[in-house]
Write a structure and sequence with these properties.
This protein has 346 residues and is α/β, with parallel strands linked by helices. 33% of the residues lie in helices and 21% in strands. The chain contains 13 helices and 14 strands. The longest helix is centred in the middle third of the chain and has 19 residues. The radius of gyration is 20 Å and the shape is globular. The termini are far apart.
């Protein structure tokens, strides 16, 4: 066995993999959209499995409530308010120094997703909202890159793998983003870490099959699991694409990728927070902004973000270099936009 493959020796012994397939994993590149609960388990599993390049994109920073299920983070990351992509990269490079980790602190939207897919073989869903998932779906169909959808709420989760132009896409399965209040969220149902681990492991297995050159082993099915009651269901989606007359994968519609659909404010699940994004991305001069805001409240910075703690009203404003801000202390998008306009600008 080649010395560089020694760390994967037990994986290579598995009947479904060998040295040649392991080498294909090492030559592969993945875009991971989101590095929270699903994303951290996916990133660690694939890094240990020897996927050669992980491009990890996440818009958020580490908070205490993340530690219950987001496996790459610790209390020091919380204290340092480290962006999740950066914290994940620090851990992963200590796990496997042979592979490339490319962390990107950014909000995935219609202006950057195609660029983020450049050179990758697979897109993985580690997000926490359907707007990003429908955008990934559009980008996958546009670029021809397969992707794996997954989601977890409470004790149950689901996942399906999508091969653009061949299998049913997300919009074949779900016509549009669910209306606010129509589905459970982590605020109303919570999230069990064990459910996250099971769903992300299934997602990782399909990823390993695809990246090792065995895409034919991936079934066109939606898998639904509830770890609390022990239920396991699979829906065969083999004929769904032909029967759905989907406007996206059959009709060629790209409403999310074109920017016709999507929001500039996002309520963050379980956080009492709203993310506000500027109409156009920018590059904020942190030093000037810190000085400007110093009279408004307590200002702290690190290389990736600026934090403004306000006492009256009681808001915590975290601003990223691209102009995005997370307004903590409200779930009202209008209030969040007002805070953003008052302290950051229009």
């Amino acid at each position: 066995m080649q010395p560089e493959l020694e760390r994967y020796s037990k994986q290579i012994l598995f009947a479904g993999l060998d040295e040649a397939k392991q080498q294909r994993l090492l030559d592969s590149k993945v875009l991971l959209c989101g590095c929270g609960a699903l994303g951290t388990v996916l990133a660690e599993t694939l890094a240990r499995a020897g996927v050669g390049m992980l491009r990890i994109v996440d818009r958020d920073f580490v908070e205490l409530s993340n530690l219950q299920r987001q496996v790459l983070f610790d209390e020091q990351d919380v204290a340092d308010r480290t962006p999740k992509a950066i914290a994940a990269a620090h851990k992963l490079t200590r796990i496997n120094s042979q592979i490339t980790i490319e962390p990107i602190v950014a909000d995935i939207d219609h202006t950057n997703i195609v660029g983020l897919t450049e050179g990758v073989d697979l897109i993985l869903d580690g997000s926490d909202n359907f707007e990003v998932r429908f955008l990934i779906n559009d980008a996958s169909l546009e670029t021809g890159i397969p992707w794996i959808y997954a989601g977890v709420i409470g004790s149950h989760g689901q996942t399906m793998t999508i091969f653009p132009g061949k299998t049913a896409c997300l919009r074949c399965l779900i016509e549009s983003v669910p209306d606010p209040g129509s589905t459970e969220t982590c605020d109303t149902a919570g999230v069990l870490g064990s459910a996250v681990n099971v769903i992300s492991s299934l997602e990782a297995i399909d990823a390993i099959k695809i990246l090792s050159g065995q895409a034919e082993l991936v079934s066109p099915k939606l898998t639904v699991i509830d770890v609390w009651d022990g239920s396991f269901r699979q829906m065969n989606l083999a004929s769904l694409r032909e029967n759905s007359q989907c406007p996206t994968c059959i009709g060629g519609e790209r409403v999310w990728l074109s920017g016709k659909q999507g929001a500039q404010t996002t309520v963050l699940c379980g956080r009492n927070s709203v993310q506000v994004s500027p109409a156009k991305k920018t590059k904020l001069p942190f030093e000037e902004l810190a000085e400007k805001l110093s009279t408004a409240g307590k200002v702290t910075t690190n290389p990736y973000l600026l934090r403004l703690e306000l006492s009256d009203p009681d808001f915590d404003v975290t601003v990223f270099r691209d102009g995005r801000a997370i307004i903590q202390g409200t779930e009202d998008a209008g209030v969040a936009r007002s805070v953003y306009s008052r302290y950051i600008g229009t």
